[in-house]
Amino acid sequence: MALQKFSKSVDGTIPVQALLYNDEELIASQDGVGIYDGLQKSPQHQSGTVHVTSQRLFYIDALKKASRSFYLELSRVSQTDYYAGLFTSSPKVTLHLSSDNFVAEESTQTGFESWECEVCAYRNPPGLSPSAARICGLCGVPRSLPGKISSSVEIPQSNPTSSLPPSASTSVLPEHPREPSLIACPACTFLNHPSMRTCEICATPLPKAEGDPHIAKSAPATRPGTPGSDNNDPDSKTIKLSFRRGGDKAFYAALKRSLKGRAWEVAPLNVANDGVRSGISGIMQAVETNAQNRDTNMSNALEDLEALMAKAKDMVRLAAELNERLTASSTTTANNPYSSSLSLLSSTSTEPEEATFIRSSLSQLGLQMENTPVTLDMMKDEREWMEQLARELANVLQGSAKANLSSSTGGGMMKERGIIALDEVWGGWNRARGVALIPPSTFLQVVPLLPAFTNPTITSRSLNSGLAVLHTPPYSRAAFAARVCGLLALAGPKSTTEIAQEEGMTISLTAEMLNIVEEDGDVCRDDGRCVIQENSQDVLVLGEVNWWANLFLGYSWDGQQ
Amino acid sequence: MALSTHTTTTGFLLPSIHSAPPFFTQQPHPASLSIATEQWIQIILKYARHRRLFTVRVEDSEALGNDWDEILRNERINRKLIPSYLSYILAQMVSQNLAVYEPPKQDRSILIYWRLPEEWAEVLYEWVSSSGNLNTIMTFYEITDPPVESPLSGLPIPLLRQAITLLSKSNRAQIIAISEGEGVRFFPTTGKA
């Protein structure tokens, strides 16, 4: 039957987009479609989705996607009819199929893979439609397929009648790369290359190759058909699409357009007509065009990204507004729970779960914040901008008064710690802002303003290695030295690690701080390199430094006189 | 941790600071360093006098089994002086004129002046006159290794030569070439020269 003969089964579990050739385009889709094979309903294909592309027609079965789906080459469709439907009869589209270009079909069987051009050695990628795969993508030279001759010769036999539209057979066939078998010289029997006109050895004129297109084309006229058993029956060459859920008109229009477009022959014809597509200049041009296309694609993609960036700001503002309104509504409810129905925001205030939901989604999106980050365009002048930034940074470091009340979210970066490296502060602040990030230069300008906005005051200080830190008063030079001395006096010598634990600071930061204390002469060191032998009784291990209160100052000789 | 003095097996009384671990580290803080170094120089000079030692080498801090063990190491607190710090201390001694590099033109070992060359000169002259050797010619060997133990026993030749040079400046001695090498003749003093 027609369906069996013309269709090719396909795994419908794969999305249609993935089934397309590289140069193929999906034009229209319609679900709720049944298939008639000839005049009979095809029982296996009664509910599915039909997709029409520039080259093919796909049927993806709704129930058994893997086994019952198929596709049909549009190049086989010679004629279409449209039936609008009547009463219970659904609208239908009839496809009349012609079987004369089996050849093209067979050539695609081997063509659907990566292959190397014989002329320019360009490796053509797989995934092109059969027509495009017939020529080299770089130099435009037709691909030569070994063993082609056999199928070419068959054309006359399979050509049924002269009633077929001429386009498909005559225009496609000459494009075929053909490689007829070697020609035996009638004089010396040398097997000549098919392109030779005279024998290479004895120069005897050679008979023309059997597979010559002229012979092939004349065949239908001289031999009017070797009809198969069912070839005369028009039913065996039609397939009907029954549109049970409408959409027939639009789909039919798309199908017509696709058929008219003749995408399956356009590609090779274009190449043939394009005079520049030959020689080195042609290759160069092809490469250039490719690069241009890639450029265009890239800039298109980046445009999208820019558009997204532009939208991000609005998004944040929206989130902030939403958040503020939610806060307002929740405080209203908290203050006067009985009058909540009177308030303007009654809808949200009576539904706290919704509010919580919105808030949690906002925070999941990273948009939760106390208020929007300060940006330069909000401020009137530079000075105020700096002060606002300092206020914001103070909030980030110490947590705002509001946030402290709500416990879990509050705190700030320096709630637990008295000293913190500047780079960590910068990173943390920008993470808190999320948008409109602060450049380091601005950050450094803001830091000196901090003491005015923080309580206890946070000041900056740079250590010997150049590391800058922000710290609270207990970590100033004098206070820290006094504390370390007190600790050493009380608990005896301590290693850097122990002091770091005591102070809750990182070891490297502690080492830096201790070096400064040592500079002041308040402590002295006991270097692990001076250990004779490592043992368990000694608190000091090799490579460590133990700190002692400075026992040299004020020492006087008490040894032998 | 209370620090206390300690008497070594050779009877030397070590100062209490010698039992403080930080004492063995070269302190980065300049004031602490200068105090600690001063104390080290004191210990080295006094110990050298105690045991009549005349040289310290940087290598002495690296290996066991030399005269300086009980000074440069403190087994009780598991600390030792590392060579770089000892080398710094030796340089300080030389710069303070308490020692001299011996042999010259290197900085790995020093000759300790636990008596200055002037003092040695006086000691030498005292000993020569008290032992009745004025106006006689003596070899260096006779001075540094006399049959009866003397304050000059074991005196290194370079130091002896310096002392004699100092004496000859005040006309109390003269170096004379003799068959076995060098000799020295001491003259009685003619009042204040």
From TrEMBL, chain A:
Residue ranges with Polar residues bias: 328-338
Keyword set includes Membrane: no
What GO cellular component entries does it have? Answer: ESCRT II complex; late endosome membrane
Cleaved signal peptide residues: none
Q: GO molecular function of the protein, one example?
A: zinc ion binding
Q: What Pfam families is this protein classified in?
A: EAP30 (PF04157), Vps36_ESCRT-II (PF11605)
Regions of biased composition (Low complexity) lie at: 158-174
Please give the InterPro entries that the UniProt record associates with this protein.
GLUE_dom (IPR021648), PH-like_dom_sf (IPR011993), Snf8/Vps36 (IPR040608), Vps36 (IPR037855), WH-like_DNA-bd_sf (IPR036388), WH_DNA-bd_sf (IPR036390), Znf_RanBP2 (IPR001876)
Which parts of this chain are annotated as the region Disordered?
150-176, 210-237, 328-347
Where does it reside?
Cytoplasm; Endosome
Q: What GO biological process, any one, is recorded here? A: protein transport to vacuole involved in ubiquitin-dependent protein catabolic process via the multivesicular body sorting pathway
Family matches, as SUPFAM superfamilies: PH domain-like, Winged helix' DNA-binding domain
Q: Does the keyword Zinc-finger apply?
A: yes
**Keywords on record:** Cytoplasm, Endosome, Metal-binding, Protein transport, Transport, Zinc, Zinc-finger
All copies of the GLUE N-terminal domain together span: 10-271
Described function: Component of the ESCRT-II complex (endosomal sorting complex required for transport II), which is required for multivesicular body (MVB) formation and sorting of endosomal cargo proteins into MVBs.
Q: How does it assemble?
A: Component of the endosomal sorting complex required for transport II (ESCRT-II).
Tell me its family: Belongs to the VPS36 family.
Q: What is this protein called?
A: Vacuolar protein-sorting-associated protein 36
What is the species listed in this Swiss-Prot or TrEMBL entry? Answer: Lentinula detonsa
TrEMBL record, chain B:
Q: Which molecular-function annotation in GO is an example for this chain?
A: structural molecule activity
Q: Name one GO cellular component term.
A: ESCRT II complex
Q: Which family does it belong to?
A: Belongs to the VPS25 family.
Q: Name its species.
A: Lentinula detonsa
The name on file for this protein is ESCRT-II complex vps25 subunit
GO terms of biological process kind: protein transport to vacuole involved in ubiquitin-dependent protein catabolic process via the multivesicular body sorting pathway
- InterPro entries the UniProt entry points to: ESCRT-II_cplx_Vps25-sub, ESCRT-II_cplx_Vps25-sub_N, WH-like_DNA-bd_sf, WH_DNA-bd_sf
| The keyword Protein transport appears for this protein | yes
User: What Gene3D superfamilies is this protein classified in?
Assistant: Winged helix' DNA-binding domain. Chain C. Domain 1, Winged helix-like DNA-binding domain superfamily/Winged helix DNA-binding domain
Q: Which UniProt keywords apply?
A: Protein transport, Transport
Q: Which domain of life is it from?
A: Eukaryota
- Signal peptide range in chain numbering: none
Keyword Transport carried by entry: yes
A Pfam family annotated for this UniProt entry: ESCRT-II
